[in-house]
Amino acid sequence: MIIAILNQKGGVGKTTLATNIAYALQNKEEKREKVLLVNTDPQGSTSDWCAAAKNNIEKHPELKNNLISSVELTTPSLEHRIKKYIPDYKWIVVDGVPQLSAISHATIRCSDVILIPIKAGQYDVWAIKNILDYILVRKPMPKIAFIMSDVTENTRSLKELKQVLETYQLPIFKSYTVHRQAYIHNIKKGHTVFETNDRKARSEIIGLVNELKEFIYAR
Predict the structure, then answer these.
(1) Domains plus CATH for the chain?
(2) Which one of 46, 47, 89, 149 is separated from 67 by 20 to 30 angstroms, measured CA to CA?
(3) How many other C-beta atoms are found inside a 10 Å radius of the C-beta of residue 49?
């Protein structure tokens, strides 16, 4: 199952969602599932995060089982190169590039599920139509859903964002991420919210992953 976190707009939380969702998928309490994290952006931060995680494991080898497998596929050939990983991993989480390009088009063509993170801002809202124009013409169409990212709860802007997203008549995850220091505090160590004491942040990611699985397997 190839899950792409994709939006042409930068700063909407793609990498934050990709790393935390990948970690949550892999490190379930009842069983571990093989996950591959894919960086598609030549200048993206996913690879830096993965390198930091590996360095941290070298200092704390007892945590080696938490390490997420990762690979860089930063050319349009990723559509074909990614296929060789499918037999070995249950989940492949792709951190998309922050622009419309040959790489993002290739990501759209090879993904089973595309999650579009969006923040409550006019520029982010304007960017939705452009990315959807490319996604919605793919045949067969992948599963598509919006995730509200880095929001401030109980605000007018959040309510307005929901209303705008509803006009696209696509699924909107009920779970979302709130603007919290836990999402950025330990990035330089290659950590996720599961290595912090913020229970609310952990609960948000768990909620997203549970909803993601329901979304994938729903008929």
Answers:
(1) 2-217 (3.40.50.300)
(2) 149
(3) 25
